[in-house]
Amino acid sequence: MPSFHLIPSLALSAAFALVAITQPLAATDCSWTDVDTTRYLDNDCTTDETLVVPNGFTFDGRGFLISAVDPVDGHFTGAVLRNGGDVAHFTDIIISATELSNICNAAPSPDRLMGIQLEDTSGSITHSTVENINQGASGCQEGNAIDVRSSTPTDEGLPRDVLISHNVIGSYQKTGIVCDGMVSCEIRHNIVGQSATQDHLAANAVQISRGATGTVSKNHISGNQWGGPSEFVATAVLALEAGDLLDISLNNVGGNADVGIFLFATSGATVNNNRIFEKGPDAQVADVGLADLGTDNTITNNKTRGYAFPAIGESIIGLKVIPSPHDPTACFQTCP
């Protein structure tokens, strides 16, 4: 067992009330055309406040770009685009931010920076690009590209269902995809890159936390490093106090993560057939491919390469450690 301590650093937030707004209040040059319950974006555009989509609508970006900028008399706060009710769908949008001020908005403030937000909502985010959701060289614990969370279940007492698929995410600040609270997220076929501000905070590419569950499958996910003055670690995939039946399978995990896939205080999860390969070698304090600090998890048939510690956890079965390109003398191992 290594001597370092693994402490995950999550995208913190407490619950706050969402006020349903059916018209955007932003100073914006965005325009759109509504056809029934589909809102079609008309053009590339710029906004200095959040655009809110009416309840039950699908926002179709038609491949156009929405750029977030600071307002003249302040700094950009909240999400670039978010729901205004119980159901919302977002597709074919490009979301980005440009030279935002480095001003922190602490949790539980809804003013924390986000790209696309679904709050207390079922719906989907598909075939979109979310990039540059950051404040430059910032250590502020915000800047989540896709942020899905709920403090309340559906009327039937079930988690909110959200599909996140076929998206490209990169150069975020704190987290690429967050699913937190009473939500069940299906996260598949996404490309999630690295944080743009790894030198300033412990970032996570994908985070499932505090009761959230679902599936993380068939994604390409790049890990993050953190070498700052704390015991926090950065990750590619973080499951922290996640709900039962979380399935993390068939993902390609790359980059140079402190921890590739990290289960912390999570039980009943399945982690199967993931490739967790880092470029390595590197000088980070923690260097673990797969860490299970939970209970009753089923972890089978995963592969790691390039990590000083391929795995930590007694329930890991059939892990294959692949020789690293920078260590051609290493032999192939099958760990018990």
Short description:
The chain has 336 residues and is mainly beta. The protein has no helices and 36 strands.
Structural summary, described in words:
There is one protein chain. The protein is an all-beta fold. It has a single domain (87-334), classed as Single-stranded right-handed beta-helix, Pectin lyase-like (Pectate Lyase C-like, 3 Solenoid). The protein is built from no helices and 36 strands. It has strands at residues 7-8, 32-35, 38-41, 45-47, 51-53, 58-60, 65-68, 79-83, 87-91, 94-97, 114-119, 122-126, 129-131, 144-150, 160-165, 168-170, 175-181, 183-188, 191-192, 204-209, 213-217, 220-223, 232-233, 235-240, 247-249, 252-255, 259-267, 270-272, 275-277, 288-295, 298-300, 303-305, 309-312, 316-317, 320-322, 333-334. The strands form four sheets. It has a twelve-stranded mixed sheet with strand order 2-3-6-9-12-15-18-21-25-28-31-34, with no helix packed on it. Strands 4-7-10-13-16-19-22-26-29-32-35-36 form a twelve-stranded mixed sheet, with no helix packed on it. A ten-stranded parallel sheet has the order 5-8-11-14-17-20-24-27-30-33, with no helix packed on it. The chain is globular and about 55 Å long. Residues 13-26 and 328-336 have low confidence and may be disordered.
